[in-house]
Amino acid sequence: MPSPRQPDGDLGLWPDVPCSASLTVMGHQGSWPRPARGLLRAAAEALGGIGLAGGVIMASYPRWRTWCLTWGATGDEAAGSWPGDELLATPDIVSTRAVGIAAPAAAVWPWLVQMGPARGGAYTYDWIENLGGLGMHSADRIIPEYQDLKVGDTQALGARGPVLRVAVLDPERALVLRADDGNWVWAFTLVADGVGTRLISRNRIALPGSGALMRLATRYVMEPGSLLMERKMLLGIKSRAERVGGHPPVAAADHPDVGHPGTRVA
């Protein structure tokens, strides 16, 4: 009577353990070949590393959450009041992130005006944005046909995502978008600092009716994820504006249909 085989509980993920169990793979019975065992071992190690990193991030996030939500911003910028704050008085989350740009506001403004899906994109990781079907394609030039932005214009973030509406349009000073459901306000403010321009991005988000699980997911997944995307966006605008310098091909002030400073949606 043949001796019983050693169990292959780990499917040969470790090279010193034989992988002699009979397995059916796509209708074929046989042992895992050595190259497959190596690939499985590498995959298991990679997944283990990702899981460990995720656990460390979640456990340590309370210690660096303030940094995450205020990346690049000075203390005064993070604590200050900015256009659009009044549109969502009691948010659950506020992030204020910023970047210094060695160019005047006139060189930065056109890049903000043309942002959006099926427009100039978001200057971040397009492939991540487009996993959600947002249709983002970040432009590397100022596009004249997308400079004519007006209060009340809308952008739909995917088929099921929020609709953002231009609520404040103050050329070369402030652009504020507000979700139609009232639960998200995203404001961009340009401030001269003597050597260039500070671009300040503030998000105010409300989570009405959200349960504990959704709030945990928002804090530990969405907040760090938003830093990844917004940091890339701010640096993308910075590099584009500095490349153009103080002479953008299209200035917002040259377009008569741009909204009047401080105009808001009723």
SSE layout:
Blueprint: E1 23-25, E2 28-30, H1 34-69, H2 75-79, E3 93-101, H3 105-113, H4 126-129, E4 154-156, E5 163-170, E6 174-179, E7 184-192, E8 197-205, H5 212-244, E9 263-264
Antiparallel strand pairs: 1-2, 3-8, 4-5, 5-6, 5-9, 6-7, 7-8
Helix pairs in contact: 1-5, 3-5
Question: What's the short version?
Answer:
By secondary structure, the chain is α+β, with helices and mostly antiparallel strands.
Explained architecture:
This protein is an alpha+beta fold and 266 residues long. The protein folds into 2 domains: 1-64; 70-264, START domain (Alpha-D-Glucose-1,6-Bisphosphate, Chain A, domain 4, 2-Layer Sandwich). The protein has helices at residues 34-69, 75-79, 105-113, 126-129, 212-244, and strands at 23-25, 28-30, 93-101, 154-156, 163-170, 174-179, 184-192, 197-205, 263-264. The strands form 2 sheets. Strands 3, 4, 5, 6, 7, 8 and 9 form a 7-stranded antiparallel β-sheet that branches. Helix 1 packs across helix 5 and helix 3 packs across helix 5 (212-244). It is globular, with a radius of gyration of 25 Å. The N and C termini lie far apart (87 Å). The relative contact order is 0.17.
Distinctive features:
Alpha-D-Glucose-1,6-Bisphosphate, Chain A, domain 4; seven-stranded antiparallel β-sheet; alpha+beta; disordered N terminus; 9 strands; 266 residues; two-stranded antiparallel sheet; disordered C terminus
